[in-house]
Structures are given as structure tokens and as C-alpha cells.
Design a protein that fits this description.
With 704 residues, the protein is mainly beta. The chain has 5 domains: 202 residues, no CATH class; 121 residues, Immunoglobulin-like (Sandwich); 158 residues, Immunoglobulin-like; 118 residues, Immunoglobulin-like; 80 residues, no CATH class. The protein is built from 5 helices and 48 strands. Strands 5-2-1-24-15-9-12-11 form an 8-stranded mixed sheet, with no helix packed on it. Strands 27, 29, 31, 32, 33 and 36 form a 6-stranded antiparallel sheet that branches. The longest helix has 20 residues. The N and C termini lie far apart (134 Å).
């Protein structure tokens, strides 16, 4: 059996990569073994020459000494100046695989993020890398995992201590080749905290390769036999000699030099000086014949220089540990503050709208689209009246006039007509440095309620679309509850008074009509109609600034007067004169409130329900009648306080019908009494009592 001394070099490279795939540290170490594989032959005087140790902690020359059969010499060392591993790892995690031209690195909260994980392993050497094992933790928020077939090796999803682990094994990867594995999954994120994508580990083996620069050579001795044979020659005084070297070990040896000297009186005479450089197998020998002239048996001395032969085995064991990549989460809220939240019906009310977009995630917001809708019956702002500010812990930044941030800013349509719905469209860009987590973007503008109608819903929806620097799917958000302007019903109170008196000239009468707005809300676009009796004609009208016309209706004429607006608690007086024959009979003027502006008249048709007359107060009652009604209503309130049913109160109100002046108020009063009677024996208590008292109080005021 032939053996060689085994010099076994095992280098190790241990690489740590951070979540951004930068090499955080790379450490190298190694183990040097000198092995005696023989079962019987010893090794001694072994000296190891490493030749080059510049990137290791080893000495260049190492005294190994003796190694018994089956034993080994061990030396550990550090390897320095490593720059990158021999196996290159690349991990690509895309949170939106539906946009193939870019790799998105942000999750959307409460959204099924269509993710794609790509793993690349590249052999940077010209020789194969074997026994590659990649294991990667797959966090629980990754669902519906689908492993696509890799171009090298096999991959599967396993479990380890309750965790999902991706395992990928590649038996051999040839030089300069890249192994690729792709995994599809859904990222379901239900909070806005930063998400850890999972740590990764790769181990591998490279035979016949090392990262240390050592090039070892070992010299030493093992079992051998040698000697010189002297035989007397055929001539007296001559000797036939032979020098021989025998490899008596189980190792290959190399015989390098052989010298034989003759010990004579004057010293040593060199007889043989050979350099065989012969490789001898176990039990193999080398010999050399030579002659010596000597009268006596020559005294010969021999020396042999040889060494055991060796083989070097190298390998590199590698390990790469990658820290978990951390991805932020895109999340935002939008809130609309309506100030005041409730406005009076039929009134013109100045309002303020404040839309606040808050970055509630862990990702900076790069772009933002806001779509804000304004209902009809409201006058939207001009673009120049809208302010936009970003408020963060560092500063407050005004951006509505900054072109580097504003990509689109418009009002649709631009006419600001309250009869139309409007939309404010805002598109912002390049906000990454200005809109970090917890910052707020506040959009503020004035709004004018223009005679909103009671019992009408006025939703004012708003929606935002946020995105990151690496654009992916939009994060779309609306308020949890749709914003709505609440309308407070405030009764319009209109009082009409009329007087008729003889004029200066015979047959002439002066008529005064006073329209009084007793409520707190504006009345717009009023039409006053007053009948001119048969046989009379209009001779004078004041005030001149009011528009009027006289319309013939058979034998009668109708004076029609237009009033643009009467503010709350204000009044307008109309004075005109008519001339004719006979008495001037009294008729009651009719007042119609059309609302909005005079433009609406052109849009209205005769008989339109919006032109119905307002209820008016009752005028023309004497003091005695007013006193009787005051006592009546006081008694009603006492009856309610004592406890009364709806049926009883309805009858009490109905019994006073003949004592009340005819007109629309009486009609409303009797209708209410019938509504009460329909409730039967229901007692008037609690909040229902408050409603009844308020309603009766309204009728009392009309008869005051």
C-alpha cells in the first residue's frame, strides 16, 4: 500500500449581509491538518514551509516534528482581507409584481399585495460549487405561497418550529452560472408597522479551492534502509562496491542526494556524489556500483538525502447569513372638518372646509391625489382661495403655490354656479422629503352655503390616492363615514301688511304693502302679487328701483313686483297709487319666494312647486280677539302640563276653529289638530310633550 502525507486545508468564509444587501462583515478562518495515513510507518523531523502567509495569521515555517501512524498535526488560523464571498447572493422582493418595470418596496395596509420573491445564486468562480442549501424564513403575513420551478435544484416549503421555511437545494452549480428561484405570494398587512421579510441562510462547499494564499510543502523522514557492499575485485588491490537505498516505509519518498566517502590517512576521499531525484515506492530501492582501490578492505562512509512525498487537499466551506429586509407600510387617513357642521336652510352661510391627510404609515408619501366633491347649493372657492400646508414635527411648509410640488390643481366646472356640483382635483408630486410618517397635509378653503334646502342630503365625498417614490399600486382611502353638510331647518317667517287710504284726488287711492322678514335667514328672489280691482288702474309706483309689471287677467289686473333679497329681520315697503271709480275693495297680497337668484326664474315653469307661497302671519285682528286667543293658548299649555292625550288635545284645538280668522294658517292649524286626534289615547309626555308645546307655540306666534 502506498501512502502520501496529506496536507488538508479547509478554509471557511462567513458572510453577513444586511437587509439592504450590503456586506456588513465577512470573516475568514481555516484549519491546516498534516495527516499520517499509514498504519505502521512513522514520520519524524517534519518541517512545514507555507511559502505565502500574507493574508493569514500563520508563521511561514512550522515545526511539525513527529507524527505517529494514524495521527495528525493540526493548526488553526484566521484569514484576512476578504472582500466578497465566492457565491454571490441576490434577493429581490417586489411588493407589486403587477408592475414589472420596477421593484416596489412598500406594502399597502389592508390590501392584498401581489408579491414576488426572486433569489439568485451566482458562482463567481470557474469551478463548481456544490452542496448549496438555502433556507429562508417566510413570515406569516405572506399567504398563498407558490414556488415556481428553479432552473437548478429543487425547492419546497417546510415547517420549522411553527415557522414557514423556504428550502432550496442545489447539488452543483458550475462556474459562472446563476441559479434562480421565483416565489409568488400575497402580502396581507393589517397594521402600519414596518414589516420584516425574513432572514436567509446559504451554505455551500467548493472543493480544490482556498481563500488563504498558503502553498504548503513538507519535508521529513520515515523508515528506510541503506548501506554499501564491498567485494574484492579480480585484481589485487581493487574492490567492487555498491551503494543502496531502500524505502522501508508505506510512503512514497524522493531520493535526492547520495554521497560515499573513503576514509584514508589524509582524510576523506569522495567516491560517489549522485543526485538521483528518484521517486521510490514502498520497498523499492535505488543502488549504484563503483570501484575502490585499496590494499585493505576500504572504510567507506555513506550519506543519503531524501524526504517523504505529500499531497495537498483544499476546500472552502462557505456560509452567508442575510439579515431580514425591512419594508415600510403605506397608510394614510383623510378627515374632512366642516365648519360649521350644520347650517341654516334657506340661508347664505359662510363656511370653512379643512381636509386633513395624515401619514399614518411608516413610509414617506411621494405623491398624493385628492378628489374633493362639493354638492350643489354651495358656491365653491376659487383656486387661489385654497391653501395647502404640510405640518410635520420639523416645520410647516406651504406648498399650494410651489410648482415643484403641484402637478395639477383645478376646479371643475370653473363657473362656481351653485346649481351645479363641483369637484376640486389636486395632484401633488415630489413630496418624499416633506411628507414623512405622522406628518399632516392640510387643505383649507372657504365655502358658501347658498340657500340649502331642508330635508335634503348634502354629501361632500372626498378621496385620496397616495403613492411612494417607487410607484406601485395607489393606496386609496376615504373617510370612514362620508362627510355631509347638515341642514338645520329654520322656519322662514314672512309677515305681510297692507293699508288702503284715499288719495289727494277724488277716485284715487294710496296702497302700501309691507313685506317683513321676521326670520333669521335671508329670503331671495321674491315675487309679490297684488290684485288691482276692476275699474282701477295703476298711476304711480315706488320705490323705482324695484322691477314691476301689471298683468291683465280678464277684467282684473295683477301687479307683480320682484324683490331680489330681504335679509333676516328686515323689511321692504311697496307704495303705489291707483285711480278709478267707486270703492277700492281690499284683497290680500300673495308673496312667493323662489329662492336662489333671479336666473332660476328662467329655468322655472308655471306651477312649479318651488314657487308656492310662504305661510304668513295673521294680520288685521283686533285687540279683543288677540286677548281671547292669548287666554286660549295659555289654557292649552296648562292642559298639556297636567297630562292630556293626543285625542283630547286635538278636540280642544278643533273646537276653536270658528273663532279664528280664515286663511292658510287656520288650514294648517286644523290639519295639525287632525294629526293629533289620529294618535288616539297616546299621552303627551317626555320628548313628545316638548315637540307638541313647540308646535302649539308656533301657531300662537302666528296669531299674535
Amino acid at each position: 500500500m502506498t501512502d502520501l502525507i496529506i496536507i488538508d486545508i479547509t478554509d471557511e468564509e462567513d458572510t453577513l449581509i444586511d437587509g439592504e444587501q450590503n456586506i456588513k462583515e465577512i470573516n475568514g478562518c481555516g484549519t491546516l491538518l498534516v495527516k499520517n495515513p499509514s498504519q505502521r510507518s512513522r514520520l519524524w523531523n517534519q518541517e512545514l514551509d507555507l511559502k505565502e502567509t500574507v493574508n493569514t495569521s500563520l508563521d511561514k515555517e512550522i515545526e511539525v516534528g513527529m507524527i505517529n501512524p494514524g495521527q495528525e498535526f493540526k493548526k488553526e488560523y484566521q484569514v484576512e482581507e476578504l472582500k466578497e464571498p465566492r457565491l454571490k447572493l441576490e434577493e429581490i422582493f417586489d411588493t407589486n409584481r403587477q408592475v414589472p418595470e420596477s421593484v416596489n418596496n412598500t406594502f399597502l395596509v389592508d390590501f392584498s399585495n401581489k408579491c414576488k420573491l426572486t433569489l439568485n445564486l451566482t458562482n463567481t468562480l470557474d469551478l463548481p460549487i456544490t452542496d448549496i442549501i438555502l433556507s429562508r424564513i417566510m413570515p406569516n403575513f405572506l399567504k398563498n405561497i407558490e414556488i415556481l420551478s428553479p432552473n437548478f435544484g429543487e425547492a419546497e416549503l417546510a415547517e420549522d418550529e411553527g415557522k414557514k421555511v423556504l428550502l432550496w437545494k442545489v447539488n452543483s452549480l458550475e462556474g459562472k452560472q446563476t441559479a434562480r428561484l421565483e416565489v409568488l405570494c400575497d402580502g396581507i398587512i393589517n397594521n402600519s408597522e414596518k414589516q420584516h421579510l425574513g432572514a436567509l441562510k446559504v451554505t455551500y462547499l467548493i472543493n480544490n479551492h482556498q481563500i488563504s494564499l498558503i502553498d504548503p510543502e513538507i519535508r521529513g523522514l520515515t523508515d528506510s534502509m541503506s548501506g554499501v557492499t564491498t567485494d574484492e575485485g579480480t585484481k589485487p588491490g581493487t574492490w567492487e562496491c555498491n551503494v543502496e537505498f531502500i524505502n522501508d516505509s508505506e510512503f512514497q519518498v524522493k531520493l535526492e542526494e547520495v554521497e560515499v566517502s573513503h576514509n584514508i590517512k589524509t582524510g576523506l576521499e569522495e567516491l560517489v556524489s549522485e543526485s538521483p531525484e528518484s521517486k521510490l515506492e514502498p520497498d523499492e530501492s535505488w543502488d549504484f556500483d563503483f570501484e575502490v582501490e585499496s590494499d585493505n578492505v576500504p572504510q567507506l562512509e555513506s550519506s543519503f538525502k531524501f524526504t517523504t512525498l505529500f499531497q495537498v487537499i483544499t476546500r472552502l466551506i462557505g456560509e452567508i447569513n442575510k439579515e431580514s429586509t425591512i419594508y415600510p407600510v403605506l397608510s394614510a387617513t383623510i378627515e374632512k372638518a366642516i365648519l360649521p357642521p350644520e347650517v341654516d336652510a334657506y340661508a347664505n352661510t359662510n363656511m370653512t372646509i379643512e381636509n386633513t391627510t395624515t401619514n399614518t404609515g411608516t413610509s414617506n408619501i411621494h405623491s398624493l391625489v385628492i378628489t374633493d366633491k362639493i354638492p350643489k347649493d354651495f358656491i365653491p372657492p376659487e383656486i387661489k382661495q385654497i391653501t395647502i400646508n404640510i405640518n410635520s414635527s420639523q416645520e410647516s411648509l406651504e406648498i399650494h403655490s410651489r410648482e415643484e410640488f403641484v402637478e395639477l390643481f383645478k376646479l371643475e366646472p370653473e363657473d362656481r354656479d351653485p346649481d351645479e356640483e363641483h369637484k376640486i382635483s389636486l395632484k401633488l408630486k415630489a413630496l418624499s422629503e416633506e411628507f414623512p410618517p405622522n406628518a399632516e397635509l392640510v387643505m383649507k378653503y372657504p365655502l358658501l352655503a347658498k340657500n340649502p334646502k331642508p330635508e335634503t342630503q348634502y354629501p361632500t365625498p372626498i378621496e385620496i390616492k397616495a403613492n411612494t417614490l417607487v410607484s406601485g399600486a395607489d393606496f386609496i382611502k376615504k373617510p370612514d363615514e362620508e362627510p355631509e353638510v347638515q341642514i338645520k331647518y329654520v322656519k322662514r317667517k314672512l309677515k305681510t301688511l297692507k293699508s288702503i287710504r284715499p288719495g289727494i284726488n277724488e277716485g284715487e287711492f294710496d296702497i302700501s304693502v309691507r313685506i317683513q322678514n321676521k326670520g333669521s335667514v335671508e329670503l331671495e328672489n321674491l315675487v309679490v302679487k297684488d290684485q288691482i280691482p276692476e275699474g282701477f288702474s295703476l298711476t304711480e309706483f315706488n320705490p323705482k328701483e324695484l322691477g314691476y309689471e301689471v298683468i291683465k287677467e280678464g277684467d282684473k289686473s295683477l301687479l307683480t313686483v320682484k324683490i331680489d333679497q330681504i335679509d333676516g329681520k328686515q323689511k321692504v315697503s311697496i307704495k303705489y297709487s291707483c285711480a278709478g271709480d267707486g270703492e277700492y275693495p281690499r284683497t290680500e297680497p300673495q308673496v312667493i319666494v323662489k329662492g336662489r337668484s333671479s336666473d332660476s326664474e328662467s329655468k322655472s315653469k308655471p306651477g312649479d312647486a318651488s314657487l308656492e307661497p310662504l305661510e304668513t302671519s295673521v294680520s288685521g285682528m283686533g285687540l279683543k280677539k288677540q286677548g281671547e286667543l292669548h287666554d286660549f293658548f295659555s289654557n292649552v299649555f296648562k292642559q298639556i302640563d297636567r297630562g292630556i292625550s293626543c285625542l283630547q288635545l286635538g278636540k280642544i284645538l278643533e273646537d276653536v276653529r270658528d273663532d279664528l280668522p280664515p286663511g292658510p294658517v287656520l288650514h294648517q292649524f286644523m290639519r295639525y289638530s287632525r294629526e293629533l286626534k289620529s294618535e288616539g289615547e297616546k299621552m303627551i309626555v317626555g320628548s313628545f310633550r316638548d315637540e307638541v308645546i313647540a308646535k302649539v307655540e308656533e301657531f300662537k306666534q302666528k296669531y299674535s
